[in-house]
Write a structure and sequence with these properties.
This protein is mostly helical. It is 46% helix and 11% strand. The protein has 25 helices and 22 strands. Helix 6 links the parallel strand 6 and strand 7. The longest helix is centred in the middle third of the chain and has 21 residues.
Amino acid sequence: MRFKVNIKTTLGALLAQEDTDGDKKITIEDQGPKSFVLKDEEGKPYEIKGTYYLSNLLQELVLAIDSNQETTEISITNIEELPTQRISRMIREYYWNGLTRTMDEHGIQALLSDSKNETLGAESLLRVYVHYKDDVALDYYMKLKSAMPLEVIQLPKKVTPKYVKKINNKPGILALKLSEKDEEAFGEPFVVPGGRFNEMYGWDSYFESIGLLLDGRTDLATGMANNFQYEVEYYGKILNANRSYYLTRTQPPFYSSLIAEIFEKTHDKNWLKSHLQTAIKEYETVWMVTGKRLTENGLNRYLAEGIGKPPEAEEGHFHHEIGPYAKAEGMSVQEYEKQYAKDKIKNPKLDAYFVHDRSVRESGHDTSYRLEGICADLNVVELNAFLYKYETDFAEIIAQEFEDSFKIGGKEYTSAYWLQKATERKDQVNKLLWNEEKGMYFDYNFRKKEQTNFISATVFTPLWAKMCSQEQAQKVIQHALPLLKEKGGIASCTKESRGEISKERPQKQWDYPNGWAPHQMMLWRGLQHYGFHSELQELVYRWLFMITKNAVDYNGTIPEKYDVVSATHKVFAEYGNVGTEFEYITKEGFGWMNASYQLGLSLLDSTYISKLNELTTPETIFNP
């Protein structure tokens, strides 16, 4: 059934009646009658009742505005679409496109309007930093300056932490890969997380690609892998994100997983060969340099370089840390922070704190009391699981696709070489990170030579990487799962590990009670690997129920993070919650949240999908 309606007239009447709080959304918090009679041009009526259906009508009307027509046909099928079908369809048809960017003439406009450029002045100037060897990019952006407000800056031959600190007051975006087709340059596409995260991030890109590959967007996943390769070749690492202040910082390593999963779709062996060479280079030069991210015990840590306070931190973020030093000097926190940034105040303890803080940000878990003040001293569970996955991925790819011999320069790599590396890592993990008595993995402080006993969702990453035995997996599920399982999925850590929260010790966004998409997705895959089907179904259902219920009640909202204890998107910790601030309709969702929804639906049994559409609570199903 379809109704032809005047778009603006219908939209105005709908908002006037139902949007009682004036936020240009229709949610359960609005106090309207929750019933709207839709009439076509002949006056034929159709009653639409309930928050979800009314918000769907609002969204359909706003999508129709883009057609530049006065009237549109509203499909009742779309209005009354089952929640899981609608959310999944919106992700597939709208959100991925809304999050796609390119660093070329056609896509750079979305970066010009970026919120991070607000400090640069009303002219909306965009600074583009270009590697000194990339003549193609330099020439391209210099020509582009005549058409839009760009400042193009060529990086020096040697980019040092001191140089990066110097340009922190001139932040800009880093060039990514430009390719040519039909004598025209185009930027390799990438998918941004959304909102203020309007650049290509490291581990976000991998998890986004899981959803992209499920949705048939191999082109976007491939574009991000090609940009990863560019970053390694030109910037020496896969960047935290392609912003100038991230030049000294990498991200959790997922490159081998990304290229393996893309190759399953494309079967392009020349592409695979090229990327395998780069992935091995990244493994050896970023992660396996002794004294940096490789520690003496053979395991790895995060260790971001850089000097001083991370410039992307929100105003006042470090006041709880800097406050006591300022008080001791009889200064305001703001003045102390300003003088410290200018090197007019020397504080070795604060210097050490910021080494750990930047390393926390390199870990992707920014921020968490698991890592606060000690990150660079830890062999963390997840990083060593990720690198074990690199080693076993390399072994499998070389054995299956390159006849067990892969040469780079004069060096030959075989599957046996990489399996030996993986075995050595697993042995050390079992020796230092595995706790047999507690049946769990813990981060290891290599300076104190002891485990931390902080229970985090990262305890499940060895299952994702297939690094543990079946017996170890059983113990982890037996001991850790009950401690971390909440109404909406897995919490980032236990409440006890997080500790008490106060004004002096504020809530961190990667801690209890919040839950995050990558933790859920890795756990789901781990449960698959080790045959825990019933646990998989329950945890996928809990996560998808939370997303679905919040989207149904709040105008399609799919944000960055959730409070999984209360199963709500209303999260108040550090930076707010990206993806909740929009008018009428979200056209992006949030990158890895979108992907987690698509992956979850692909894993969930049909009987549970039916219950999800009925919004049957997890407690009703799993705790009768």
